[in-house]
Amino acid sequence: AYERRFPTCPLIPMFVASDTVNEYKSEDEAIHVIERRCKLDIDAPRLLKKIAGVDYVYFVQKNSLNRRERTLHIEAYNETFSNRVIINEHCCYTVHPDNEDWTCFEQSASLDIKSFFGFESTVEKIAMKQYTSNIKKGKEIIEYYLKQLEEEGITFVPRWTPPVACKLESSTFHTRRPISPAINIPDSAAKEGLNNKEILNTSSSPSEPTAGTPDDKLDADYIKRYLGDLTPMQESCLIRLRQWLQETHKGKIPKDEHILRFLRARDFNIDKAREILCQSLTWRKQHQVDYILDTWHPPQVLQDYYAGGWHHHDKDGRPLYVLRLGQMDTKGLVRALGEEALLRYVLSINEEGLRRCEENTKVFGRPISSWTCLVDLEGLNMRHLWRPGVKALLRIIEVVEANYPETLGRLLILRAPRVFPVLWTLVSPFIDDNTRKKFLIYAGNDYQGPGGLLDYIDKEIIPDFLGGECMCEVPEGGLVPKSLYRTAEELENEDIKLWTETIYQSASVFKGAPHEVLIQIVDASSVITWDFDVCKGDIVFNIFHSKRAPQPPKKDSLGAHSITSPGGNNVQLIDKVWQLGRDYSMVESPLICKEGESVQGSHVTRWPGFYILQWKFHNMPACATTNLPRVDDVLASLQVSSHKCKVMYYTEVIGSEDFRGSMTSLESSHSGFSQLSAATTSSNQSHSSSMISR
Q: What is the pLDDT at residue 169?
């Protein structure tokens, strides 16, 4: 009866749809576990949905039916905004121990709101309202489907009995992607680290903690099944790094397999691994890499002329990627698509590789954390050494090396021509020493002899173009028609578009040189909202108001007012001759924000005019020395420069009409934001304040 509420239930209007993402059945049919991704239309105020940037929220639900024990366990947690709000729910149906005609039902839930744009109390109220409503309707819904079964003549289900010849229990995984179309994740929602593939222990994303793993010790069976052989020292490094991330990282904690890759890449030097892992997590968040498989679709040119694709697995169970580089028109692809599109396509290949590693870990019952790449160089010539193409290749190698360490298990280079040493000389300095050790290079037909391809790949799956019997569906490549080429200006605009799809901007803050953003307000009682991450260093956040506009940044050769750096821009708007209290005023108390913090807030404007948001360098006080480094000490040690900070920020202004129109649904909330809003709608003596949350 419970299963009949899926994929959607007319008795639950907010339950819009659901997709099965993972299913497990034991051979004797005693155990049946099914996981679904559920789409919900939460009854929330329009303003809150607008600020959050989402129309629907997603939950992951895991139902575990044990016919042997006669129990049904239901677990659910939120996927949307999981780094801000944590919701966990557990339900259990069991047979009463004293009367088998009775069914016992237990339900519990927890809610932890870390931050939500200053609307914490509103979100808590909405969550409690939805939960109370669900409890009241739960019995009604199950009775509705029980009655439906009775009307169909189903009044009895035989009790499970073990098979006569009971075999050892084995499992079959049926993993598939959701059948619904790809989801277009709004930028502001993407900022929250939404990951529509994070599903309990079967997640393909690197950003989900593995359930059931103790914080101070790793279970031996868990290590053997998912991580491989670890020495006590290596296990200790993994636990320490994970605990540090739990204390400092704002968002989902990466899975142990992902953390382990970075530790192995730095020979388990925990300080070095911590630094590159933090840089990679910031990079993933800024460029929304977690959603690339669902939100970005390769252009048709890539699908037709990029001669690469996945092809079964090698003898060790690693996913096998085949690249016919010699048949690929690298110059044509760069001229038709640009460097950024090629980079994004390679990133999508790597993300798919991580997903396949997880799937193969389940299938083969042992940890598989890397893949094998087979590169066929037949046809490689001087055309492939075109300088912009080599430049694009070097950049791709650099990005992949930094963010996907220890994912390449083996690289088989076949049919290397005479021109190959030239290409190798160009690219090898950019490849990590540990990675280079995994390269096996075969000239001519050497791959067909002893120590060749058959040592690593089963004969049955050797591609047909290498003399095997397996048809390989990898595109054959070929020359890209020149009619598809685009001008340098078009490619430049496309490159900018690809990597600025995030609504967040980066800025550098220097000692003595704050970064400032100007916002012009026409209507009083408008709302300025902001959301920023402090990526490096400590800063002080201020908000100022001025009746007159500051002078635009000067474009002089000295760059005194506008500084451009690789980490972002630095713009100064407040003239040095301006005096605080005369030319401009402070409308908020200064807020000190430490490295690694995410800050969200809002400000109701009292007057029209010009508002300046300022991020200013803040000197970190010295920390006392202890046996174990404190979080502040570690963060300070990661700073490349003691006089430079970095922030990633987003601001938006909500008009007074939209703001006032939503007040009736927020007035009963106890958040500082809604109390202030009520004041602005009921009194002309409005005042300026903000709700800032971390």
A: 41
What CATH code is carried by the domain that includes residue 238?
A: 1.10.8.20
Cα dist from 564 to 291, 382, 395, 508, whole Å: 29, 37, 21, 8
Q: Cβ(570)–Cβ(513) under 8 Å?
A: yes
Q: Which of 152, 168, 190 is the last residue of a domain?
A: 152
* Relative orientation angle of helices 387-403 and 330-337, to the nearest 10 degrees: 80
477 and 515 assigned to the same domain: no
Please state the φ and ψ torsions of residue 20, each to the nearest 5 degrees: -80, 125
Same domain, yes or no: 343 and 449? yes
Percent of the chain residues past pLDDT 90, beyond the cut: 24
- CA neighbor of 322 nearest in space, from 419, 466, 436: 466
Contact in structure between 541 and 599 (CB atoms under 8 Å): yes
Calculate the alpha carbon distances from 290 to 197, 331, 496, 605, 638 in Å. 9, 29, 20, 36, 24
Determine the Cα–Cα distance for residues 258 and 351; give it in Å rounded to an integer. Answer: 12
**What is the predicted pLDDT for the residue at 118?**
62
- The DSSP code for 223 is I
The tokens describing 296, both together, are 């970005």
- DSSP result, 338-394: -HHHHHHHHHHHHHHHHHHHHHHHHHHTS----EEEEEE-TT--GGGG-HHHHHHHH
- Average pLDDT value over all residues in the chain: 76
Task: Give the range of the structural domain holding residue 336, as residue numbers without chain letter.
Answer: 290-483
Is residue 275 located within the same domain as residue 369?
no
- Residue 416 pairs in a beta bridge with 443
Whether the predicted pLDDT of 269 surpasses 50: yes
The DSSP string of 10-38 is TT-TTEEEEEEEEEEEETTSSEEEEEEEE
Scored b (16 or more CB within 10 A) or e, 522-546 reads eeebbbbbbbbbbbbbbbbbbbbbb
For residues 574 and 474, state if they share a domain: no
pLDDT recorded at residue 171: 39
510: closest CA among 649, 647, 645, 648? 645
Reading the block at residue 537, the tokens are: 């260093």
Residues 445, 321, single domain; the answer is: yes
Burial pattern 451-482, b for ≥16 Cβ within 10 A else e, equals ebbeebbeeebbbeebebebebebbebeebee
